[in-house]
Amino acid sequence: IMLHSTLALSLLLIAVSSNLAMAIKKEKRPPQTLSRGWGDEITWVQTYEEGLYQAKKSNKPLMVIHHLEDCQYCQALKKAFAENEEVQEMAQNNFVMLNLMHETTDKNLSPDGQYVPRIMFIDPSLTVRADITGRYSNRLYTYEPQDIPFLIENMKKALRLIQTEL
């Protein structure tokens, strides 16, 4: 009987520890809920503060996407953004990426109002690039699905500015 219960106990311990190991392994991968549909292959930072820190540390520009779940313009832009391979690849490799569904306390991120969607770039010196704008004078940092090529140009511009200025 003693042998039997020891065996049962060790089997239980093995089961528990392997489940624990699996839970720990899962924990290491960043949860892709942070992508919120903007691109699951992209590593997203969770907060603006973390984004600034990573931008400075990695010498990559931070790209901040402000959006809301129930905004049809945001949904349309998100779909175009997620489906565009060039955008996804650049976002994945060359940028620190953040998408936010709430406003930050940094007023520099809303120079012309708190509308969505809006996309802004912050360079590694932590300067908000008010000079990288979209195509619309009434909402400088908004993009529509058909503006993805323009967004790609702005992403390239953000990368060029780092080379020339810093």
From TrEMBL:
Keyword Signal carried by entry: yes
Keyword Signal: yes
GO MF terms, alphabetically ordered: dystroglycan binding
Gene Ontology cellular component list: endoplasmic reticulum
Gene3D superfamilies: Glutaredoxin
Signal peptide limits: 1-23
Keyword terms: Signal
Protein family membership: Belongs to the AGR family.
Name under which the protein is recorded: AGR3 protein
Species of the source: Zapornia atra (Henderson crake)
High-level lineage: Eukaryota, Metazoa, Chordata, Craniata, Vertebrata
Gene giving rise to this polypeptide: Agr3
